Every structure is written in C-alpha cells, then in structure tokens.
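Q: Can someone sanity-check these two? First one:
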Amino acid sequence: MNSGDLSENLAYPVVDSIDSREKPPLKLLTIMRLGLFQMGLGMMAILTLGILNRVMIGELGIPALVTAGAIAMHQFVAPARVWFGQMSDVRPIAGKHRTNYILLGAIGFTTAVFLAVQVMWKLGELIQRNGGWQWSGETYLWTGLLALVFVLYGVALSSSSTPYAALLVDISEEHNRSKVVGIVWSMLMVGIVIGGITGGILLKSIADPAIVTGGNIGALLITGKEVLTTPLESLQAPINSLFIIMPMVVFGLAFVATWGIEDKYSHFSNRSISSSRDDSITLGKALKVLTSSRQTGIFFTFLLVMTISLFMQEAVLEPYGGEVFQMPIAATTQLNAFWGMGTLLGVSTTGFLIVPRLGKQNTAKLGCALVSLSFVLIIVAGFTQSAALLQTVVFLFGLAAGITTTGAISLMLDLTIAATAGTFIGAWGLAQSMARAIATVSGGAVLDLGRLIFPSPVLAYGLVFGLQAVGMVVAIALLSRVNVQEFKDSTTKNITTVLQESLD
C-alpha cells in the first residue's frame, strides 16, 4: 500500500469486510439513552466536587489546598486517557472496543468514591482529637491514602469516559454530531441537577453550620475570628447513605446507557484502520501524530486555558456560599442544581440554535466572553451577601458555561480523525483533565493566598473568580488562531506518514 492509498483511506470511510452492514440512523430516544451515562457522571461530579470538598473544607476544617490537592489527583492521572483511548481502538474486550471499557471503569470509580468518604472520616477524627488541623505522621498517612484513592478513581474514570467519548464519534456523522453532543451533554447537566437536588434533600438532616468563635479548626479557614464547623457524628450517617445510594444508581445508568449501542450503531469497523492491524498506530506513534500538528498544539493550549478558567471555582464555590453567605450544606449543594439548570439550558439550545447560526468556533468565543462576565457578577454578589442573588448569578454562569462547552466540544470532535478516534479523544481528555486538576489545586491555593492578602473573605474568594475572568479572555485570543481545515489537512498527512513508516 502506498502513501496515496493511505491518504485516501483516511479521507473517506474504509469498508471493512468483517462488517459491511449499513447501520440504522440514530433516533432521539437512543441518543437520550446513551446520555444516561453522562447523567451518571454529572451525579458523580456533585458527590466529589459539590459535597466532598464542602464537607472537608467547610465542616471538617481540612485546609483548602490539601482538600483540592487530594481531589485533583483523579485529574492528574489524565495521561491514562490517551492510553485507554488507544487501547479501546486496538484491544477490544470480549469483542467490544468501547462498551466493556466503559462498564469496567464504572465499577471502579463508583467503588472508589465510597472508599474516599471512609478515608475522609479518618481525617475528621484526627482533627477532632487534635482540636484542629495539625501535620503529623498519622495525618500524612491518611492524606496520602486519600490522594491514592482519588488516583484510583481517576484511572477508572479515564478507562470509562474516554472510550465513551470515542463511542460518540463512532456512532455519529459530522452533520449530526453537534446535535448528539447537545443532547448527551444536556444529560450531564440533568445529572448535576438531579445530584444537587437529591444531595440537598438527603443532607437536610444536617444542621446549619455552627459558628465557632476563636476556634482552631482548619487554620486556613479562619476568616478573621470565625470558623464554620459541624459535629462529625451528625455528618456521617446521611453522607454515608448518599455515597452508597448514588454510586449504585450511577452504575445502573452506565449499564442501561451503553448496552447494545456499539453492536447496533457503531461505524468503528468501517472507519478505523487501526482495529484490523494492532501495530498500525502504537501509543508512541500516536503521540508523534498529536505533537506534529501546529493546530493540535493551539487547540490543546486553548482547552487547557479555557478549562482552568472555567473550573477553578469548583473547589471554592460551595465554601464561598457557606462562609460569605452563611448557607448550610444542603443549600450550597443545591447551588449545583442552579448551575446545572443554567448549563442544561445552554447546552440543550446551543447545538440547535446558536451553532447553526454562528458556527462552532464563534459559539465557543461567545460562551467564553459570557463566562468572564459571570465571574465578575459572582464577585459583585458577594458584597451583597444575598443568597438569592448568588443563586441567580450561578444560574447565569451555568448558561454561559453551557454555551462554551457545546461550542468547544463540537469543535473538539471536528478536530478528531475517525481512524484514530480513541487516541484523539484521549488527547483532548488529557488536556481537559490536566487542566481541571490544575484548576482544582489552583482554586484552593489562590483562595489560601487571598486570605493572606485580604482581610475580607469576599476579596479572598474574589481573587479566584477574577483570575478566571481574565483567563477566559486569554482563551478567546487562543481560539481565534484555531483553523479546522488546516488541522484536518496536516493531521491526515501525519497519520499517513506514521503508518507508512510502520509498513516500511
């Protein structure tokens, strides 16, 4: 086979003799069923970043940087996404390239999140015993174990979510991809809303946060003489129940979402040339392709900056509501519902109304600009200390985030070569996960820095939100340099060259 043949095969679908049957068109109910997996991920996001971080920072008094650092470990293992994406391209499990990776990963991350809660209680007991956060051998041990559990959570999540995103490429065509993205990511927001509301209801039994004057619980949380805390005994029962029920529901959703989809709808065997030849694109060669295109580097950088700027607030928004607005755990958990409803509206309408009119790239730019404005409004809300205003602004932030997400993800799928979908989805997942890891840690670190610089908690939190607003402006500048056609032309040539080297 010569280079010309390879180039033609990459430009057009390759008919595989093993499965040349025409696939049925995707129906709305099928796409919504597939979106149940994303709904489950939305619920898991509430458990980890909506509830665990609030409890650890606001109730147990674990320093913000320690909390954010431990939780972020599941995102620092993001390089595993490229490997799992590559493996799902070339190493099917029980005859399936995507489904069994998704289900095995779901078993792993639902188990890991429950284990994380149990380790969290051990740290809580240490804090109670010591009268506050103190570094010791035992503290290092349990903190390290908590980080390790989140590493396992991240590996399992990578092994599940990357093949899932590749499955979306496998079952969709370019003409309907933005609609598939809109529906499926809408289901993610539905999961966040359901998780926020369910979590708020199940956590109603936890009393409003008590004000402890002059306490020493969580030195980095002291806002000038007051610290929020809740007795450990009143936290354990409702939170343990929540972290048993919701992970079981999430796995059930993953099973229902994916069962039978790959066999019936996937075009993978018709498009992919890596599935028929295991040594055609190794991980090393895939990385060579990913780093040889100027456009890949620009988009990779855009994803990093955009994601960091969008998610630095994840580790601090609920503590912001508790500390500045005096909201109880149930109320700050339900902030995620307001954010999720806004994002749901943004995601569900963008693919149908905005992208067809503005295009994917301009849609992403519009979303970034609106997100930047939203962070300014979140800071303003802090000076009013009105919980109702904060809820409204968080809803608007969600709406802007939905527009940004849909535009960026639709563009990301366009910047994916069908012949190596798992590898490219893994690369984009790597960029997003590493950025979210950096964002989570940075949010906690900037908050702690803000406490040292400013006497007012509003200004300390405002430093985080202000940096996010600036970051979104930088993301817009990077996005202006992205050229989809240049990417497709250069990357197709690069894959042709890499495969030719393998055959030679």
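And here is the second, same format, sequence then tokens:
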Amino acid sequence: MHAFDDAGIGVTAIDIPMPGAVFFGANNPRSGFMGGAFLAQAAIAEWGDDQVNQGYLVVGELPQSGAIPAMRTGGQVAGFLAVPEGFPEDHVIKIDSKNTLQESLTQMNIVIGRIPEGVPIMGLAINDPSVTGMLRATAQAGRADMSLFVGMGADEIETIAAEERFIASVGYFPERYGNYLLPIALMQLAGVEVPLAVLVNHAMVTKKNICDYYDTVECGKGPSFAYKFPQQAFLAHLESLRSDPELEGYENLIPSE
C-alpha cells in the first residue's frame, strides 16, 4: 500500500481491508444475519417454537481471522436469536472450525455428546465446507433427522442439492466479482469518487432456486415457509457493531441498513 500510495495509484482491496484502499467484499453483518434468521425460521417450521427452544445452535467460527470475518459468524448468531422468542443463549455452542471440513467434523464430534438426545441440532458456520463437516458428524452420530444446517458461501452446490438436512446457503458469488471490480477501477481511472466500501449483494440459495444461479445442478423442493428478513432486529444489531471497540477504524465495513 505504501508503494501504491507513493505512486498515486488507486487500490481496491478484496475481502481484506487495507488503509487507503477502497474495500470490496462481503457484507459480513448482513450475510451472517440472513443465514441465521433463515435457519431459525426453517427450524420453527420443522419443529415448532417450543421444541426449537429446547434445541442447540452450533456455530463454526474462525476466531484467528480477526474482527472482520467475526462479523459474519456474529451476524449468524444474532440473526438466529432474532427469530425464536426466549431461545436460551447458553444453548449456543461455538467451535473453532479452522475453516475446514475435517476440523469442523472433529470439533462437532466432540461437542455433540453435550447435546441431549432427541432435541434439534441447528448448525451454522463461516463457510460451506465447515457446515458440511458438522453435518457429517451429526449423521455419523445417528442424529441427522433432528438436525438442520445453513451454509455460508453457496460454493458446495452439489452438497446443498443432495443433502436433505443442508437446507440453504448464503450466496457470495465470487465468480461475479469482476462485475463490481472493473467498474470500480474505471471510476478510479476517470477520477470519479468511489465509496470507501462496496459490499456484495448476497442471496439465499436454497434447493428450490439453486439452478437459477448454477446450471450444473437441478432445482429441488423449496422451503416449507416464507422466509422474511428481520430488518428491525438487523438494524439493532448494526448499532451494536458500531459501538464495538474491536471494529474501531472499520466503520465503513458496517452497512447503514
């Protein structure tokens, strides 16, 4: 960045913010909140409020990656808790996924013994491979029928299409990043003011609409409920992020709505 700044060359930083650069990447708070709220609504449609509140939410985090990606998993938890009334916060179990299927499987195998038999197991994670590992561990324990999982990234499309309990994932669509990055570069070259942060437009990818995004898989049966994004709860979550001292200096990565 020092070299580019000295040469007067504009920089767009992808996913990892750098001082003086335009940031382009995930809308971490919103994408996480979307996935968490979707999972909670799906769980209530499957089991009802009372049984969901007896269940456990397992979240595959990546703590070593710092405060920016943590907005994603933090959003997942906040989005989930915004839906069921009275879900016990001590029923939220966080594991270090290491961003991999194998480590998530290992960690899920460890924690699943803490979850009573016969109650719902609901899972979220920082990416699809981590969710897949958690799902595999649940199936190996013979508890798949009482589980639901929502991913992050929508890049494990065959798994989403094939696995009954992997019900959805939040799409990031990195193959389309060029549609954002080229206009940003052209604006910079033309001397047009560019926002400090340009965030991805995310979408919920389900079995019903997956073929609309990826033509290599067939669409399947859709969710049994009408998904509704809890906007007011999300705005309250954004306010809490703005007061988080760990995010000082990164306020431009927190969306306004």
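A (reply): Looked at the second one. The chain has one domain: 25-178+203-242. Strands lie at 12-14, 22-25, 56-61, 92-96, 121-125, 147-153, 166-171, 197-199, 203-206.
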